[in-house]
Recover the amino acids of this structure.
């Protein structure tokens, strides 16, 4: 490690890092009334979710509306969306490091915070989907029986956990150095930043392979799935980061340079166009060819044999995506925050439907014996999902607050520790 | 930013600080207590799962002695929870055997006796009326399953229809086995794909991977009245499955590995079902395979089923 100590004589290294975490914990639990209200609400929703999950585990997954026909539902839909969010978080990193855009460096860390929270949610969405979470240890390499490299699910376990560790390291290291008032040593984080770029692409590619590798599910069995996943991830991720940056500016008192946001909008414009192009290509192949491969697409977009469960969902998604994209292409998206935020929200919700229910459920309808059994999530599934999102937002809020505390200099090694009355203004 | 950060001092604190610390501590305690209350339904589950069950190793890693213990424990649990005396055995593949199943579609009339027999033989959940067999009623003149119906309930055979029973095809290239992240399902030497119900984590990736809708998940704890339980059980086949795991047809390995025929075959009144060892040159199944025109379901997927259909010319 290079850099010089920042004047204070506190311990560095592991002990110092724990001290940093302790102080961080203390400071992130300080906030305005609004902050406390927000955290309390999230905690309450997370607890409702935890309870619903506990009941589900005890009484069996009969409490969900999944069946042997539609054996994955809202949980795996949300899992897929969250993986995209996590992969998209890296879009800040690419321009910052590959193109040496210095202004992006401070903003990058917020993208990584989004990635961390999204990975936590993805993992939880898989855990709540397990029939036997008590046997989770069977999935731990060397302790259980890890079916690697044959099972794509084991690849997903590796890339998701790896991505979490990489991002925790980068965020933790950069913040700690800032806290110590030292210049971060590039050797300790730049290689990991490059690794995280490759890794981000891998998490969404592997997640797509999970589905497109199944020959028995024609709706998923398309080579376009992984590229489509990536394109939509590079919309939802940056869109989410833009919203977070805005909240940080309004509520957290940290104003980043406007340049990164402009760059993110350019990224979204390109990615969303590619995403819509690929969607059109997919639709053409499905409907022009017709036949057995069109059955799921027919059910999804137009309904089939009197069943229309997903039709309103998918057209809502198409409308949101088109309007959102149009807004992003307006010059006003660059100039006016409200237009920008509206565009972000529209695209995020549109992609949540498209990459969630719109992708997972038609994989099962019609079933492999070509029968139609419809699916709507049960109240338990909604509660557990809301709880998982709430927990993810808790993680995100805490991380973002910690980052702003460090970047604004509220938290550094030499903070005087005796003045208690500091109350932040939201 | 000119705000002064706050942080509790290590030693003596001002009263204001201690109050803030106390409030934070109280909130943290309250939060933990609320979390404990929220997940309290799990206590029932932890009481039900013994330490031996939790720590049980994968079937293929159990020694003969381990197996004895595990089987005894499972038998005792069945006695306690279902009130039935059962015997759980460890039926292993017979060397030189490869089981193959065939159905004569000219004879099958969709009467559903095989579906019922499977339900009883394999101790399926009475609540869901589950079975490992589904029968598609198809219009004559097509093999498009999309035109078929599995929920018919009229007299059979119906005019202009033929019947296509589908169960696990015991593929030689099984997508379900490849999908499983924990090797809880595998293919045995006689061709049967089995599940260790005590190792499955219930992710249902295999269910998504199977092109034949052959796998079933236990969405709840199965309910079977004591007097209806088939006591003649095997660890890898028809013992009562736990909640939250996947199960499937095993060609009744608790019967077939002891020289008997599958329950669905014995129940079939039309003689449409043929089962046997394809490696035996004298077997009927071998003769059919070599002499009939056969149909293999979704052959283009490359799953290589150990199951075929044929017609009388």
């Amino acid at each position: 490690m290079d850099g010089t100590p920042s004047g204070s004589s506190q311990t560095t290294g592991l002990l110092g890092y724990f001290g940093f975490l302790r102080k961080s914990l203390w400071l992130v639990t300080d906030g305005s009334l609004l902050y406390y209200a927000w955290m309390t609400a999230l905690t309450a929703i997370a607890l409702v979710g935890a309870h619903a999950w506990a009941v589900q585990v005890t009484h069996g997954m009969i409490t969900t509306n999944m069946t042997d026909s539609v054996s994955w539902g809202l949980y795996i839909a949300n899992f897929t969306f969250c993986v995209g969010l996590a992969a998209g978080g890296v879009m800040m990193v690419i321009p910052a490091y590959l193109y040496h855009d210095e202004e992006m460096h401070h903003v990058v860390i917020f993208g990584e915070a989004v990635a961390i929270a999204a990975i936590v949610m993805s993992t939880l969405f898989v855990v709540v989907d397990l029939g036997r979470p008590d046997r989770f240890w069977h999935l731990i390499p060397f302790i259980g029986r890890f079916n690697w490299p044959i099972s794509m699910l084991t690849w997903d376990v590796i890339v998701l956990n790896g991505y979490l560790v990489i991002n925790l390291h980068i965020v933790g290291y950069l913040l700690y150095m800032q806290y110590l008032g030292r210049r971060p040593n590039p050797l300790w984080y730049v290689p990991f930043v490059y690794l995280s770029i490759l890794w981000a692409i891998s998490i969404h590619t592997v997640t797509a392979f999970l589905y497109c590798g199944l020959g028995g599910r024609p709706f998923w069995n398309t080579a376009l799935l992984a590229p489509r996943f990536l394109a939509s991830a590079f919309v939802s991720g940056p869109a989410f980061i833009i919203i977070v940056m805005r909240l940080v500016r309004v509520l957290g008192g940290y104003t980043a340079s406007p340049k990164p946001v402009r760059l993110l909008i350019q990224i979204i414009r390109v990615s969303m166009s590619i995403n819509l192009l690929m969607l059109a290509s997919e639709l053409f192949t499905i409907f022009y060819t017709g036949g057995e491969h069109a059955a799921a697409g027919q059910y999804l977009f137009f309904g089939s044999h009197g069943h229309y469960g997903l039709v309103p969902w998918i057209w809502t998604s198409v409308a949101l995506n088109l309007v959102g994209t149009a807004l992003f292409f307006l010059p006003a998206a660059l100039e006016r925050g409200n237009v920008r935020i509206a565009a972000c929200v529209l695209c995020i919700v549109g992609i949540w439907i498209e990459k969630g229910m719109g992708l997972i459920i038609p994989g099962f309808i019609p079933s492999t014996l070509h029968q139609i059994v419809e699916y709507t999530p049960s109240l338990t599934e909604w509660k557990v999902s809301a709880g998982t999102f709430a927990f993810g937002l808790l993680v995100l809020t805490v991380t973002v607050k910690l980052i702003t505390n460090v970047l604004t200099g509220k938290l550094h090694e030499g903070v005087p520790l005796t003045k208690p009355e500091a109350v932040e203004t939201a | 930013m000119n705000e002064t950060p706050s942080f509790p001092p290590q030693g003596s604190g001002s009263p204001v600080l201690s109050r803030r610390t106390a409030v934070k501590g109280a909130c943290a305690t309250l939060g933990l207590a609320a979390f404990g209350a929220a997940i309290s339904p799990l206590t029932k589950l932890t009481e039900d799962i013994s330490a031996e069950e939790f720590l049980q190793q994968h079937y293929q890693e159990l020694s003969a002695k381990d197996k004895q213990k595990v089987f005894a424990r499972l038998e005792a649990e069945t006695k306690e929870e279902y009130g039935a005396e059962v015997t759980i055995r460890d039926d292993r593949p017979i060397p030189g055997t490869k089981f193959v199943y065939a159905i004569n579609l000219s004879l099958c009339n969709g009467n559903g006796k095989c579906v019922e027999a499977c339900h009883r033989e394999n101790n399926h959940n009475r609540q869901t009326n589950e079975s490992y067999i589904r029968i598609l009623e198809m219009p004559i003149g097509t093999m498009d399953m999309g035109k078929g119906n599995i929920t018919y309930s009229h007299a059979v055979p119906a005019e202009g229809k033929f019947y296509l029973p589908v169960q696990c095809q015991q593929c030689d290239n099984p997508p379900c086995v490849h999908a499983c992240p924990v090797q809880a399902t595998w293919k045995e030497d006689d061709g049967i794909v089995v599940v260790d119900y005590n190792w499955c984590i219930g992710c249902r990736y295999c269910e998504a991977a199977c092109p034949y809708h052959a796998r079933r998940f236990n969405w709840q704890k199965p309910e079977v009245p004591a007097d209806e339980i088939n006591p003649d059980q095997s660890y890898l086949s028809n013992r009562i499955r736990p909640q939250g795991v996947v199960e499937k047809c095993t060609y009744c390995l608790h019967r077939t590995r002891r020289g008997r025929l599958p329950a669905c075959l014995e129940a079939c009144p039309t003689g449409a079902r043929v089962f046997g060892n394809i490696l035996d040159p004298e077997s009927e199944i071998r003769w059919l395979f070599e002499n009939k025109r056969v149909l293999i379901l979704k052959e283009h997927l490359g799953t290589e089923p150990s199951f075929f259909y044929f017609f009388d010319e």
Q: What stands out?
A: Chain A touches chain B through 77 residues (CB under 8 Å). The first helix of chain A runs from residue 13 to 28.
